[in-house]
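Batch job 17 of 40 flagged for manual review because the log was empty.
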Amino acid sequence: MFAGTHTAIVTPFRNGTLDEEGLRKLVDYQFQGGVQGVVPCGTTGESPTLTYEEHERVVRLTVELTAKRGLVIAGTGSNSTREAVEMTQEAEAAGADAALLVAPYYNKPTQEGLFRHFIEIAQNTKLPLILYSIPGRCGVDIGVETVARLVEVCPNVCAMKEAGGTPERVSQLRLALPSTFEVLSGDDTLTLPFMSVGGVGVISVASNLVPEAINEMVQSASKGDWQGALAIHDKLYPLFAAFLKLATNPIPVKTSLALKGLIDGELRLPLCEMTSAQVAELKAVMTKLGIL
């Protein structure tokens, strides 16, 4: 269901409010680039700083703008179980195709707490659910045994966005779970390694800027053209590395989209703009790759 490239889209702002025209341009740009889906209101979409009303509006508007050209996977995770349930139900009512649920951040639940958190959400929606394990952001990972327990009880838990930094986790998940359970990369630098051991695609940050290239890389790997996929990975790696090095996501990718003229680069505090030296470095990478 989730094989391919899905873009974790940024949330465009202008003068402190949602830039709906910017969102339209960004969604169109993604599907013109051939991606299979978009993910509004994830970490890349600055979800922690969206109001509840903004979150609902972004999801609903993204569904309308997508117009069935691909999947809309709404980010509805929270460190409050009640809030995650409510946002997932709102996404379902808005017409989203699936929901992405990040591990609760900051409060560092036990594996039993994670199990109860996700099962509460799963039992209160009919949407297919993608779990999102990113211990570098959340302080906890979603254990393989916990995922297996969830899948056994809740058939709508059907995929994982894995951002733990090692292909070994992909192998562990695949061996512990039914063959229908899908694993997606949550890190552009690791998409090819993950796919080489059974991952089916990526929820990508870089595809905000280069959707066509990321999609071509993923499709090449899916067809077994590893040489072609590797050539694209090698070409794009300086961009992946710049996004990781220069500032916290989504600051660099949002800046890159502004440099290309796709959206305004406005961020919402506590995120703030890059230094002029960082912008110059990013611009140099984009120019070398022919993006500018």
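Reviewer: the log was empty due to a logging misconfiguration, but the result itself is present. The domain at 4-223 is CATH 3.20.20.70 (TIM Barrel). Unflagging and moving on to job 18.
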